């Protein structure tokens, strides 16, 4: 019982992170058709923001607030300087964003030096959940992720900005025809996705090894989430996160992490073969 | 034979002459530098055969290079395999081809193209490097495997011993020249034309009776097999293999070599590999962590300034001269 509960909670932690990182990718990759290979660096930037704030003596919570702001700003600059010019050239976008990813990684290394950066969680200790004892910070992480997801769903479905975004995604020309500034919508959506990834980086910082190169693992997994879940819907994103996060957590108990990664990749490839539009492809659009 | 083909052959012949003349001016060490760079050139050509012809980027090509290398190392270090050099080469080619066939089958027949393919191959590369690091009982972990003997093929009365600098230089030059020539023949013939048709409009190509998925899969397998061959050759020339050789940085570098040299030209990527590795040695010698930064900037420059590679500067200049000539 306790084992099952801890496994479930571990899976939930991973699913929460994947969900937040995947959200930005679902926006750029799934909806705008932009393959942003620098997306992992938003996570890195979020984690480094928390580290930087803590190293100056600030609190974790202030760092966590700053992380999405910094991530979103970098995303905005990236969209404005590079991605905006390449919307019609998918291959160029891949190469350019990969180049940016390398530049960001190396700049962080030059600025902060080699080696892992320590980030301490805001709360120590565990919580007794009757069936199991679990680290308090991880429970907070799951809670923040759930709250963020709810906020995003409300934003997309209940506000006029969300309506604009949905219109642009469904038909860009038509959206322009009815007077929506699609350029601006794309830019805001992209920066928004980057901000959420930055938040994810800030959240994961106390649990992860904070390195300039940490982003690529999140990048690969987040792409699996979007591909497996089927690009284009929040339900698909949820399904993809549960699939990738759940499978990884369960496998991690049995076998070595890198073999688990390989098996998750294999499973993802097979899912793509069987359901090319993703687990929920087409069902919830 | 079109003008384009003649240009290609002229360039190819020039390259061959340079390779033949070089040993008269260079010492043993310089020969080995060019030899190793040529192996990476072969690797670049293998990526170009797929990327240049299909327009689909494989971003984990080092996985095949590394796999070939590890297979070669394991077979030659085993000691009990007869004809270890030859078996190692064939095993490396087969292993890389098999991995590509498995990945390619699921992806191509699942309708995966374009960016999705790039991402899945990127992930494959990441995982291969992790596997090479963590499966240390077989791969030697972070430090890799050392002491791989130089290639020695003793088969049907032919004996090739590549312990010497000049012999190995000649051997690698011949292999690279032959493989590049074969790839060029493949891509200018019917095979390449079908691939161009698929790249232009897959639905129409399929309507004309071409099995697009199968054709893409075969191209991918050939490309991976050659990458595996390059990996195996590199390992027995260098005498060691480490997880870096299947990793993301090498995949990134090979992409740059192809992009700078000119995608779809086969020769350009070989030249790109030679030139950029030279530059890398110069830059890394005063600050090793600067190189990835410059690689990243190179990507951005390529995308915005030189989408067709460095060689396109010449054809652009030509176009300018042609435009001005009739006015005179």
TrEMBL record, chain A:
NCBIfam families: urea_trans_UrtB
Pfam families given in the database record: BPD_transp_2
Gene that encodes it: urtB
Spans traversing the lipid bilayer: 12-31, 60-83, 95-116, 136-156, 186-211, 223-247, 259-276
An annotated GO BP: amino acid transport
GO cellular component: plasma membrane
Keyword Membrane: yes
Name this protein carries in UniProt: Urea ABC transporter permease subunit UrtB
KW Lyase (keyword) present: no
Family the UniProt entry places it in: Belongs to the binding-protein-dependent transport system permease family. LivHM subfamily.
PANTHER family from the UniProt entry: ABC TRANSPORTER PERMEASE PROTEIN, BRANCHED-CHAIN AMINO ACID TRANSPORT SYSTEM PERMEASE PROTEIN LIVH
Domain of life of the native organism: Bacteria
Membrane protein topology class: Multi-pass membrane protein
Keywords, alphabetical: Amino-acid transport, Cell membrane, Membrane, Transmembrane, Transmembrane helix, Transport
Main location per the UniProt record: membrane
Locations listed in the record: Cell membrane
InterPro entries: ABC_transp_permease (IPR001851), ABC_UrtB_bac (IPR017779), BCAA_transport_permease (IPR052157)
UniProtKB/TrEMBL annotation, chain B:
Topological type in the membrane: Multi-pass membrane protein
Residue ranges of the TM segments: 7-26, 32-51, 58-77, 83-109, 116-135, 166-184, 216-242, 254-276, 288-306
Gene Ontology molecular function, alphabetical: branched-chain amino acid transmembrane transporter activity
InterPro entries, per the entry: ABC_transp_permease (IPR001851), LivM-like (IPR043428)
Protein name: Branched-chain amino acid ABC transporter permease
Keywords: Cell membrane, Membrane, Transmembrane, Transmembrane helix
Record flagged with keyword Cell membrane: yes
Location relative to the cell: Cell membrane
Domain of life: Bacteria
Entry GO terms, CC: plasma membrane
Keyword rRNA processing attributed: no
């Amino acid at each position: 019982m306790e084992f099952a509960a801890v496994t479930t909670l571990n899976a939930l932690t991973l699913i929460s992170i994947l969900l937040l990182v995947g959200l930005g990718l679902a926006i750029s990759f799934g909806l705008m058709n932009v393959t942003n290979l620098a997306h992992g660096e938003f996570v890195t930037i979020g984690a480094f923001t928390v580290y930087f704030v803590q190293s100056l003596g600030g609190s974790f919570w202030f760092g966590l607030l700053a992380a999405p702001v910094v991530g979103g700003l970098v995303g905005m600059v990236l969209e404005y300087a590079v991605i905006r010019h390449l919307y019609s050239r998918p291959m160029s976008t891949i190469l350019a964003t990969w180049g940016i990813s390398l530049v960001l990684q190396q700049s962080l290394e030059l600025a902060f030096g080699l080696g892992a950066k320590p980030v301490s969680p805001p709360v120590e200790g565990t919580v007794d959940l009757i069936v199991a004892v679990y680290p308090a910070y991880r429970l907070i992480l799951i809670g923040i992720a759930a709250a963020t997801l709810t906020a995003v769903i409300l934003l997309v479905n209940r506000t006029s900005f969300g309506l604009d975004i949905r219109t642009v995604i469904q038909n860009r020309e038509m959206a322009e025809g009815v007077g929506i500034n699609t350029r601006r919508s794309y830019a805001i959506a992209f920066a928004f996705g980057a901000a959420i990834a930055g938040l994810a980086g800030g959240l994961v910082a106390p649990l992860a090894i904070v390195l300039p190169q940490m982003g690529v693992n999140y990048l690969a997994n987040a792409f699996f989430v979007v591909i497996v879940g089927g690009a284009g819907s929040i339900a698909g994103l949820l399904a993809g996160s549960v699939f990738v996060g759940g499978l990884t957590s369960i496998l991690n108990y049995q076998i070595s992490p890198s073999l688990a990664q390989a098996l998750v990749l294999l499973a993802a490839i097979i899912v793509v073969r069987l359901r090319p539009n993703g687990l929920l492809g087409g069902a919830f659009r | 034979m079109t003008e384009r083909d003649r240009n290609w052959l002229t360039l190819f012949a020039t390259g061959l002459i340079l390779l033949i003349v070089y040993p008269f001016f260079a010492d043993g060490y310089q020969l080995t530098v060019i030899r190793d760079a040529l192996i990476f050139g072969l690797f670049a050509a293998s990526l170009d055969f797929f990327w240049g012809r299909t327009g689909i980027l494989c971003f984990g090509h080092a996985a095949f290079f590394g796999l070939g290398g590890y297979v070669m190392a394991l077979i030659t270090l085993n000691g009990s395999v007869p004809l270890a050099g030859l078996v190692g080469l064939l095993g490396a080619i087969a292993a890389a081809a098999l991995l590509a066939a498995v990945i390619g089958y699921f992806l191509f027949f699942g309708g995966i193209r374009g960016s999705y393919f790039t991402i899945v191959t990127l992930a494959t590369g990441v995982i291969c490097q992790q596997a090479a690091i963590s499966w240390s009982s077989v791969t030697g972990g972070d430090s890799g495997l050392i002491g791989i003997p130089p290639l020695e093929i003793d088969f049907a009365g032919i004996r090739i011993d590549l312990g010497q600098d000049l012999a190995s230089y000649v051997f690698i030059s011949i292999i690279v020249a032959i493989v590049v020539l074969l790839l060029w023949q493949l891509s200018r013939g019917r095979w390449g034309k079908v691939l161009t048709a698929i790249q232009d409009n897959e639905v129409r190509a399929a309507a004309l009776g071409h099995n697009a998925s199968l054709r893409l899969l075969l191209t991918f397998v050939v490309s991976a097999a050659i990458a595996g061959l390059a990996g195996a050759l590199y390992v027995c020339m260098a005498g060691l293999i480490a997880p870096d050789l299947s990793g993301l940085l090498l995949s990134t570098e090979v992409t740059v070599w192809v992009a700078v040299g000119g995608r779809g030209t086969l020769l350009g990527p070989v030249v790109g590999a030679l030139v950029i590795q030279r530059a890398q040695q110069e830059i890394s010698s005063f600050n090793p962590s600067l190189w990835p930064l410059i690689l990243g900037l190179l990507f951005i420059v390529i995308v915005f300034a030189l989408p067709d590679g460095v060689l396109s500067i010449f054809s652009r200049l030509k176009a300018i001269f042609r435009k001005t000539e009739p006015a005179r």
